[in-house]
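User: What would this chain look like folded?
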Amino acid sequence: IYNGVDLDRVRGGRPYAHPRPYALAYGRLTPKKGFHQLLAALAELALAAPLPLDLIVAGTGEARAAMEAQAA
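Assistant: Here's the prediction, encoded as structure tokens.
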């Protein structure tokens, strides 16, 4: 399965401890993947109403510094 996940490798793992509900976005941090658009969309939603969750972005790539600046 292309880009599939082997569930046997992740079963039994402990969830990430975070004080609030969160959504996780994981992948190579490059403009092609569109994480910058996700950040922009969540920022617009937060202007309309407080969001009941945090966004956690995990990954590495050439867009990391730009995304950190955008998130700040």
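The helical segments are 7-10, 35-48, 64-71. If you want, I can go into more detail on any region.
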